[in-house]
User: What shape does this take?
Amino acid sequence: MRLGTELRKLRESSGLPARAAGEHLGGNQAQISHIESGRWGVSAERVRRLAAFYSATDMKLVDALCAMAEDRGKGWWEGYRGVLPAAFLNIAELEYYARHLRAFQAMTVPGIFQTEDYARTIFGGRIPALPDDELQARVEHRLRRRAIFERPAPPQFEAIIHEAALHVLYGGRKVALGQLRHLLEVSEWPTVVVRVIPFSSEEFAGSAQTMLYLGGVVPQLDTVQLDSAYGSVFLDADAQLAHYRAVYDSLDRVTLGVNESREVINRIAKEL
Assistant: This one.
């Protein structure tokens, strides 16, 4: 869907109608509509043909779009297609290709840093309750996402967590303590920064909404993921991306430094 969206943006910037683009590929307007809506796949060769037809000059973007076309359907998350909601696959794919990530969590630890017991508690509290096989698949999928940090060149990840999330005893004291200890370990990973918004902060933290900003291979492919009562929402319009970059930057005013944040996490863990 994102590949189709970016191709539509290139076409609209060129001022060319879908009919002309379809004819250029030897088809018709419907073909382009299906590609741009994500209903049909498209090869890297056709992406380059369309980009040239649209007189696209940003070759880094074109190369990135071709890579998207070539890699389609090859990720480990494809094994969960038809088992988990599409949003789970989307998040895993976006994280896999992201060059840098920024997360804000108000009431839970970021999913990619959750322990197995913590994640099982979060998913286990869903209403209505999940079938056992789907619950297990969700937990397994969540744990597999952290594989991005095992690569030779893992992405930069900055996580801002409100202190409230660190005090909630999801799953009981033992599970909560295990999660805090794991978070301390995560905070020492080379490309990970964990920072805490303390209870003592007197400012509103820009937004109480959970959000994940994923920096793409090129800026045009950045994405924001938001949680809602009905599932994940993905945003990629320029104005939306600019808004959430500003929101995230505003969190710096109310967030503790790295060492101070570790001290807060350590103190809460000791209290358990």
In short: The beta strands are 100-105, 156-162, 192-197, 211-215, 223-228, 231-235.
